[in-house]
Amino acid sequence: MIALLIATAVSLFLCLFLTPVFTKFLTKRQMGQFIRQDGPKSHLTKRGTPTMGGVIIIFSSVIGFTCGSLWMFFAQNRTVRPSSLLAMGLMVGMGLIGFIDDFAKISHQQNEGLTPRAKMILQTILGIIFAILSLQFADANGITPASTSISWTSDTFLDFGWFLQFGTIGSIICYVLFVIFINLIITAWTNAVNLTDGLDGLATGISIFAFASYVVICYWQFSQACTGNDDMSNCYMVRDPWDLALVAGAIMGALFGFLWWNASPAKIFMGDTGSLALGGAFASMSILTHTELLALIIGGVYLMEVMSDVIQVVHFKRTHKRVFKMAPIHHHFELIGWKEVNVVIRFWLIAGLCAAVGVGIFYTTWLV
User: Fold this and answer.
1) What is the pLDDT of residue 152?
2) What is the pLDDT at residue 140?
3) I want to staple 272 with a disulfide (CB 3.0 to 4.6 A). Which of 4, 55, 101, 314 is the partner?
4) Domain residues of the chain, as ranges?
């Protein structure tokens, strides 16, 4: 528990005190946000606000996690486990893609960075690497960081491993389907968080609830982990739940520190650097804790945002009419008269409810 507190506290205070320093650095170099002209007119005043705050979120999370891991090493002689490195690696990798995108926007002096094709190719390459590595590093009980099963609160009977019984061809089919599935999860969550990041403090606050949920889930999985002699129906076959709790705690702490400066009126935006990194981290937590479907509830606001965008695009192409005044949906509420801060707080409340329901379902299924 001390390691978790250290990871959370270090990342929180680092992000809290380094963000204004980084903001001044960006301001001096005129590295500000560009605002879409077709959005709410109130957003035009935000033009030039420093962006790429995700750099500090990632840095603080990594340092916080490292400090927690070092405490475990010196106090308990416990080394860092593969699952946490995979989660942090995906977060940093997606953050790097976001950083390239943000830097391109600033360099081109417009709201267009990497092309969708280029961004998708980079995300796919990173997703393939993550998927392949996540099935390596089996522990003494043969448990790898990820599972070929599709999971709810734990692995279900829907298992790509079913194809393994058909020899070499079956193995190829299993791993191809698994890689595709993992890439769909990663792409979906990174884009969902990216779409959510449209108002001051919106994505930051929602992400605090999401990662707080995974702190609780990972801690419970750690306390109820399978040991090889247990009744497998009442324990969790997760590779490194405690290390994943440190990851979630470090990210949550960094987000608390960042929210101080990102809340309305925002002094800095996280940019694609932050939103893609958080999306990658959330995706990795769902995969490595074997809660891929449960994440749809925990990240309910992310899901609502991305689905509003999909519905808008599909309906407009078919009927040339809009379902919402503007997508994603937080802009719709602005355009019908809600103040930005009201939209943000109400979406935070929904995110808190989603997190509570998700954790409640997780705990309830264990009781059953």
Assistant:
1) 94
2) 85
3) 101
4) 2-367
